[in-house]
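Risk register update: the risk of archive-format incompatibility is retired. Evidence:
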Amino acid sequence: MRKWLLMLLMVMVAGFVLTPPGLAKEVKKGDIAFVDVSVLTVWAQPNLDRPIDAPAVSNPVDHWKWTNDMSYEEKLWLVGKLETQASYGMRVNVLEEDGDWVKISVEGQPTPREESGYPGWVPKGQLTKNERLEDLSNRPFATVTTATASLYEDRSLSKEFMEVSFNTRLPVMIEQGDKILVGTPSDGNKWFDRADVEIYESVDDIPKPTADDLLATGELFLDLPYLWAGVSGFGFDCSGFTHTIYKAHGITIPRDSSIQAQYGTFVEREDLQQGDLVFFARNHGTGAVHHVGMYIGEGQMIHSPNTASTVEVVKIDESSYASSYHSGRRYLDN
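Archived output:
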């Protein structure tokens, strides 16, 4: 008992206790806010959600129930209705209010549409304002390295609090053996199993990846069902997949495939290397870019293809994209 009291005292003296549960503030226009659900789904307009989308617009969310309960047609309806997603604890900027919904921009997802981040609408109740968490932005952080991971209420890891996505990043309060205490947006401190995370002092300390590192990360998600606008271990779209793989390794690239195809270094098809991004366009490769995958060598790519499919490895020339190859881009310095 003394040991735990001493630990609590040390944390409090260091000034690292977050706002207690229930004291985080409702967001309003002009705020910097934090994602308060495991995965925040960002909509093209407010109040577009259907009854079947209830698990995705609540707090907490039930992402597996949402995606598993939808039929193919119901998932296909989401195309154009959703913009992107954001993971637990991410910073967003509140741009507008419309009743119980707010327009936000998601920091760290570059797009020419909005300088401060990827824009779209979300329910207010899925965000929180927490100045204490903002103050902890310079703390070391734990980042989830498994497809999904559990946060726990207790150090013994016996009571699950929330399942969170790959690349969720939360400030580290205490490292204790194989258990990590982290801060959350509105529910105090919770525990990770050390095996599910890596800890970094800052984003700049994330090691430069090799092509093999990128491929290993992509392979974590083989057979994961596609989700339009998805950027998490619960489901990806094509560019959300490539964006998230690179982001997890400390490299920020644009959110959308059409913009990803404009940056990095152009690579001729015969010069493609593992880890390069490969793009596909309409009109037999001459029109607008609409798809991206990651090249893995020997004419193959790993990608998240479409609503009817899952993350897969395919030979480009034997896939449905064979006739629409557009270009290659390199974001990994050799």
